[in-house]
Amino acid sequence: MNYEIDMYLNDIAVIRLYGELDHHETEKIRTHISKTILQGNLNTIIWNLERLNFMDSSGVGLILGRMRELRAVNGQTIILNPSNTMKKIFQFSGLASFMLEGTEADAILHARGIVNG
């Protein structure tokens, strides 16, 4: 499992997850992201799942936990390009309204309240 975090103007983090996300990998990512949230002005996390092949329940917990942390600062979460299987998991978890299909640039515009079209 690999992941990358890119920051945009210190308030948006794009997190790209690759491969498989299981309990062991979730712990590493959770620690890193929670520190990022606590350190500054972060108010949006965009989870780019385009290259994520597998996620167990700990992955859903990872996203839900960071959503709670962001809610404390009126932040928002975008789940970008989940697979069809992951879409079903997020729908059953009540997270369907946070899903978005498109590019990272689309998601950043969406986060900033800019709508194209």
Automatic annotation (TrEMBL):
GO terms for molecular function: anti-sigma factor antagonist activity. It comes from Lysinibacillus telephonicus. Pfam families: STAS. Residues 10-101 form the STAS domain. Belongs to the anti-sigma-factor antagonist family. This is Anti-sigma factor antagonist. NCBIfam families: ant_ant_sig. PANTHER family: ANTI-SIGMA FACTOR ANTAGONIST TM_1081-RELATED, ANTI-SIGMA FACTOR ANTAGONIST TM_1081-RELATED-RELATED.
